[in-house]
Design brief:
This protein is of the alpha+beta class. It has 3 domains: 60 residues, OB fold (Dihydrolipoamide Acetyltransferase, E2P); 63 residues, 5' to 3' exonuclease, C-terminal subdomain (DNA polymerase, domain 1); 50 residues, Helicase, Ruva Protein, domain 3. It is built from 9 helices and 5 strands. A 5-stranded mixed β-barrel has the order 1-2-3-5-4. Helix 7 crosses helix 8.
């Protein structure tokens, strides 16, 4: 099993990256919490890796911190929670916030994650309340220069749709976040839209 990868960042999208490791390009699925911390294209990075094997499918999930990896592996241990939903959970809530919501039984916050209904939220609390580690702070950096407003809106909308949000809600959240003030980058705009969706 692959436990970690160090390589050059070839592609960078909100839910997946491609890492060049000695000439081999690895597709790695990442949560937004990891994406926010990504370096620029061409830079060398190291990710903690969870290798998921199911039937004939092999998928790599990458994380910038031990906390993210541990929370992800606990999430997929819960019945009905697969790696995609676990990744969405880490993208919908900052890892420390997600840990806190589970440990305190904050069902409402957990239900704000796309794909997590009341039963799944209750199951997460029941099974993981005493198993998740104490939350740590995960720094956010590596923001990039912004593009034009239309391009930015399209990129953020695409990211939200990939995370499972419905288009009307996503568009409304994007509009509200852009109207709230100057947006410095794609990552900043996406973070603001997610905050609007969580209200």
């Amino acid at each position: 099993m692959i436990a970690a990868l160090t390589g050059r960042l070839l592609e960078k999208r909100p839910n997946r990256i491609v890492l060049d490791v000695h000439g081999v390009g690895y597709e790695v699925h990442v949560p937004l919490s990891t994406f926010y911390q990504m370096s620029e294209l061409g830079d060398e990075i190291t990710l903690q890796i969870h290798t998921h094997v199911r039937e004939e499918t092999l998928a790599l999930f990458g994380f910038s911190s031990d906390l993210e990896l541990v929370v992800f592996e606990h999430l997929i241990s819960v019945s009905g929670v697969g790696p995609r939903l676990a990744l969405t959970a880490l993208s919908g809530l900052e890892p420390p916030t997600l840990v806190r919501a589970v440990r305190t039984g904050d069902i409402a916050s957990l239900m704000g994650i796309p794909g997590v209904g009341k039963k799944t939220a209750e199951r997460l609390v029941l099974e993981l309340k005493d198993r998740l580690p104490a939350s740590e702070s995960v720094s956010q950096h590596g923001e990039t220069a912004s593009t034009g407003t239309d391009d930015l809106r399209g990129d953020v909308l695409s990211a939200l749709l990939n995370l499972g949000y419905h288009r009307p809600l996503a568009e409304k959240a994007i509009s509200a976040s852009l109207e709230a003030g100057e947006v410095e980058s794609f990552e900043h705009a996406l973070r603001q839209a997610l905050r609007e969706l969580a209200r």
